[in-house]
């Protein structure tokens, strides 16, 4: 009977803490956490000249909904803000010195605002002081082209005398494609594809014991951790931008301010990403 009374007390405390108007003690907002590729993108050597690029869209081409074994899920498996992420990565590449990104996603709003300024100035007999809109030499196209669920699954568990636990894990794979298209000729000058794994882990533990005859005490604890899908997509985009920069240097599409660094940049990239076995061995 004492166990039942204690259990009711715990429930009462939990319900008391769930009253409306209570604010949860949640962490404050923070800037987006860096990924494993962020530092490599930010530390790229200075370019010989900034590259003018435009991003119209970077859509989710997978059509994949969130994996759910219990019911049909209508939420998308990956973020729908790939274009905003790509622009943010481009603006931070090489400390913000590599790309000049022109606004194209909100081009309608930009044109409408410029038209409003020009019409207002014309109404008051003032000459328009707006400079022409900047053009882009390259259009960056592509998108999130793949999301493979349950690429790797597994788990383990054990119990002894009513005490034990288990662990389950799952791995999904996100694939990103990025290509640079020449505005003058329409030729695809460079293209790259990257993949990033998304891990989910669940750990549970429990114990049960007969306290008295006919009364069983059972305790269960658990925790699950999921890699944020948005960070996985961002890391894939960062690597795609990094790869595109290196491939452009390799093909002579653009160069570094310090020409002596170009060979080293290409070699380091090839060792780390095109021949990772050599990189891990070293």
* Whole-number mean pLDDT: 82
Output the CATH homologous superfamily.
ABC-type transport auxiliary lipoprotein component
Write down the Rg.
27 Å
User: N-to-C SSE series?
Assistant: HHEHEHEEEEHHH
The helix fraction, in percent, is 25-40%
Tell me the CATH topology: Rossmann fold
Model regions low in confidence, pLDDT < 50 over at least 5 residues: 1-17
% residues in beta strands: 25-35%
CATH class: Alpha Beta
The computed structural class is alpha/beta
Count of individual domains = 1
Total DSSP E strands = 6
Strand order of the largest sheet: 2-1-3-4-5-6
Q: What would the principal axes of the Cα set say about the shape?
A: elongated
CATH architecture: 3-Layer(aba) Sandwich
Number of helices: 7
Largest pleated sheet: 6 strands, mixed
Q: Span between N and C termini? A: 65 Å
Q: How would you describe this structure to a colleague?
A:
The protein is of the alpha/beta class and 282 residues long. It has one domain (34-281): ABC-type transport auxiliary lipoprotein component (Rossmann fold), CATH 3.40.50.10610. 32% of the residues lie in helices and 31% in strands. The chain contains seven helices and six strands, in the order H-H-E-H-E-H-E-E-E-E-H-H-H. The chain has helices spanning 2-16, 38-42, 82-92, 107-123, 229-251, 262-274, 276-281, and strands at 51-54, 99-102, 138-160, 163-182, 188-212, 215-226. Helix 3 (82-92) crosses helix 5 and helix 5 (229-251) crosses helix 6. The longest helix is centred in the last third of the chain and has 23 residues, at 229-251. It is elongated, with a radius of gyration of 27 Å. The chain starts with a helix and ends with a helix.
């Amino acid at each position: 009977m004492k166990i039942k009374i204690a259990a009711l007390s715990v429930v009462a405390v939990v319900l008391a803490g769930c009253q409306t108007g209570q604010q949860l003690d949640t962490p404050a907002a923070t800037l987006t956490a860096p990924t494993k590729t962020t530092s490599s993108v930010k530390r790229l050597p200075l370019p010989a000249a900034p590259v003018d690029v435009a991003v119209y869209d970077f859509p989710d081409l997978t059509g994949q909904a969130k994996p759910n074994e219990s019911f049909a899920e209508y939420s998308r498996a990956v973020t729908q803000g790939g274009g905003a992420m790509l622009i943010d990565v481009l603006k931070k590449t090489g400390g913000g010195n590599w790309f000049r990104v022109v606004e194209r996603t909100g081009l309608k709003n930009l044109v409408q605002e410029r038209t409003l300024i020009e019409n207002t100035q014309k109404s008051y007999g003032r000459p328009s002081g707006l400079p022409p809109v900047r053009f882009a030499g390259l259009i960056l196209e592509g998108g999130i082209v793949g999301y493979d669920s349950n690429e790797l699954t597994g788990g383990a568990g054990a119990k002894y005398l009513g005490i034990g636990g288990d662990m389950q894990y799952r791995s999904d794979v996100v694939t990103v494609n990025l290509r640079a298209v020449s505005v003058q000729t329409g030729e695809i000058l460079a293209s790259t594809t990257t993949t990033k794994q998304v891990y989910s882990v669940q750990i549970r533990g429990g114990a049960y014991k007969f306290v008295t005859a006919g009364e069983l005490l059972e305790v269960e604890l658990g925790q699950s951790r999921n890699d944020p899908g948005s960070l996985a997509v961002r890391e894939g985009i960062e690597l795609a931008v990094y790869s595109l920069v290196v491939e452009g240097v390799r093909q002579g599409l653009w160069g570094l301010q310090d020409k002596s660094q170009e060979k080293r940049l290409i070699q380091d990239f090839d060792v780390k990403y095109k021949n990772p076995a050599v990189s891990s061995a070293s």
